[in-house]
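Marked as duplicate of an earlier ticket. Keeping the data here for the record.
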Amino acid sequence: MLISKYSQPDFDPYGDNQRNAGEPGPWQAPVATAPLAARLQLPGSKSLTNRELVLAALADGPSTLRRPLRSRDSELMIEALRALGVSIEAVPGDGAYGPDLRITPPGELLGGTSIECGLAGTVMRFMPPMAALALGPVAFDGDEYARKRPMRATIESLRSLGVEVNDDGRGSLPFSLYGTGRVTGGELEIDASESSQFVSALLMVAPRFEEGLLLRHTGDRLPSMPHIEMTVECLRARGVTVESPEPGVWKVARQPIRARDLTIEPDLSNAAPFLAAALVAGGTVTIDDWPATTTQVGAHLEELLPRFGASVTRHGDALTVDGGDGVRGGAQLPGVELDLSEGGELAPALVALAALAAGPSRITGIGHLRGHETDRLAALAAEINGLGGAVTELEDGLELQPRELHGGPWKAYADHRMATSGSIIGLAVEGVAIDDIATTSKTLPEFPELWRGMLSHDGAGSDAAAIGSV
């Protein structure tokens, strides 16, 4: 039986009482008491939802998004688009994830407004190039830590395209721009070493530039290439031709962005803590509706979790991770050496597993995580060490030595993936108290309920029920 609060007729997915769904901290992370036998359905991908919202707003007609994510990040994107004159309305869906979204582009994007970015990288990076197509001033700001996140590549690229931007020399939020209703486009060089979102943002609006865009990345590295590939695939599915004549170069001519109705895939990165739980608690966790092919980086979990000793199988559209006895059952996780340069957002969950391993681990390729919701490398090291761990920061990663952990406070730093990584450790270590579990509302407001629901379906009971967005 699928349990879903969205099936309740009086539930308002946009109600203020639901925006920070979750629980006030500190939240005592539940300890696993038996092997799992859980089956879950997860809400839609944040990365896909926010990309498709932008493309639908720029399309040549109305689009419908089925099973979109509802979280703080997606709501911030919806409100940002509405501020520019885009019509976004809830329409009946299939009941499992609440209403679908109908997006109708305006005849002309409107300026004379301000956009609240929160801590959403997709909003603060994707919206300024789109706002440059509006007529009039648009101001951007966000949460306190958002002002520390890298934005110089966005600001400098807009100036190179002839857009007037005022940031008082900060290279970060807050800033404002003045749109003239059009952007010439042409050739542009940027250094996107700090975030692939800088590239994705420009590619999505490039078909609306007068001369299209020839974009060249000039930095030494480009993190999270799968996210750029995701953007390109989203564009191509809407009829946009994107050429890449050589690595780090993309060419998009001026052309229509086709309206499209589509179903958003479940968020595979949000699946990471639940699948990792099988290795800690033991038993199995199954995620339904796992796509056969995808551009989401969460797909790498199929190859990464076996490095810790998991068995991963597919049955139809379901993916199952079997953690055997798990850490709680006496199993010893091996130490690992991982390069996560293409899947950095999976790092917090995998670092949590490495903190429970019996051998040393080295996880690299994640230096860019210092510019995410918080400095994730410093935060993970501080919190694991605070529980008795031995984590050393590297230039582009973390090194972990095996230590017996104890309970204690765990800071989330307003970062959803820090909160969920603490929950993973809490499955094996009694007394882990997460100060702000509600920060998971950024991409998965239902996390606390889903986490407890997963633990209620253990191997000591009968067949596990499907756990929806409860």
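See parent ticket for discussion. The longest strand covers residues 135-141.
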